[in-house]
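In this section we walk through a basic example: taking a raw amino acid sequence and producing a predicted 3D structure, encoded as discrete structure tokens. The instruction is simple. Fold the sequence below.
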Amino acid sequence: MAKRILIVDDAAFMRMMIKDILSKNGYEVVGEAENGAKAIEKYNELTPDLIIMDITMPEVDGIQAVKEIKKINGDAKIIMCSAMGQQAMVIESIQAGAKDFIVKPFQAERVLEAIKKVLG
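The resulting token sequence is shown next.
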């Protein structure tokens, strides 16, 4: 059965790029969210196998969303997306419970490698 993934990014074209990589490789994108608040809502509603989450977003950022989702489910699997030079934020999100991170601009191989690593 295809692994179910939730994509969270405030940029629609980024979500589209990730969705494209995932669907071409047999993953099912069950939902999308444009900020951390929506991500928490969608996580509750959809219980995906994995979340790919942007760090910098309006309203509730990725780090805050990771903390909230981890409270709901300590086993939630989350991969962070960061722009270049966001090292401190990447470290903070890993400490908050994210399992891995990918850097923009995305390379399909790296996205898939991270997903395989996190989903096992």
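Looking at the output, two observations stand out. The helical segments are 12-24, 36-46, 62-72, 87-96, 108-119. The mean pLDDT is 95. In the next section we compare this with other chains.
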